[in-house]
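Risk register update: the risk of archive-format incompatibility is retired. Evidence:
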Amino acid sequence: METPPDPVSCPHYDVLVIGAGAAGLVAAAEGASRGRRSLLLEKNKRPGVKILMSGGTRCNLTHATDKWGIIKAYGEQGNFLHSALAALSPSELVQLFEDEGVATKVEETGKIFPVSNKAADVLAALVRRLEKSGAEISLNEPMLGCSRVDDKFLVSTSARSLTCDSLLITVGGKSYPGSGTTGDGYAWAAAWGHTIVPPRPALVPITTDASWVKSLTGLTIPDVQVCVTQSNLQSTITNLKSLASARGSFLFTHFGLSGPVILDVSRAVTAHPHPRELALVCDFLPGTKTPELEEQLQQEAAAEGKKQVVGLLSRYIPRRLAEELLALCGLDPELRGAELPKGGRSRLVAAIKQSNIPISGTRGFEKAEVTAGGVSLNEVDSRTMQSKLVPGLYFAGEILDLDGPIGGYNFQAAFSTGVLAGQHV
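Archived output:
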């Protein structure tokens, strides 16, 4: 039987930060800049693997808004972020990167990216900042376990045993497990008595069995209104209960649906016990009201009777989509305007404004950008990020039960909670 390590003989740090992602990198730097002897442990061979993958390798840093815009975007969870955003607001986050030589830009959607479009530049800036702070970093060294010894933490890693006064867990959630975020922190937090809100994928593509959807693979529509509802093919959008809705860019894929608007409503799908009972109601022309579209289509069909209906529809929606909707409505693809019956026109308008796509599920944690669920916010002091149950234990970043919409909100929360924790460890 192995003799347990003697805490007195172990290397001691004021602060140990576990996980070199967005929250961990800024937290360790913040702690070290206060004169705290800080060590950042990372199980991967390099830091910030998920940062490098994010935003299509461009890294959407934050959103062009103020702290109130971030708080509102988080809904019920938003109140938890007041102190964190006071410690690091969106404008201060942008300034942090500008000070490290990373110029930023605001895109039309409000997303803020590095001008270079390179997530590698973002990570390099964070690592530079860490090095300048005096914090140490050890890569390829996962934490295996931890216990309390008197008023210290005794941490065992793959290589050694360490002690610390303050322990900060920033290992992320379960999304993109290929980047190393495999949910390790939940078991540690639970062992210390913390409640874990069941983790589930968020900002994740949605799957469907509808073959017509998959036949449109690769087609992007910039502006679509979507609504997740209980599946009921006989009902109209007006009398279906909406579980989530959003408007934005929409992408047909080989497995179903993706794009920002789909990712934004996906948490309603993963929260449902039976996703196959759900449907996605899609308005492919949200800027035009139903009566207005029906009238326009009637006038154009009468004025251009020899023109194929698919050509008339192509003025409003992509031709490939028009062809599929004609087929779904049981109409001949060669049908001309003059031959379009009133019932057929109504079915086409309904298909454009209220297409009902059955949902089969999502692509899971493997393809999720963030994790919903995690360490219960009720058990973490939002003013310091310290556990309310275990003195000296802190949490920051995605391990917390915090998940925001697409657009840089989740990185902002990670950076802000990381900085706040770093100010108090």
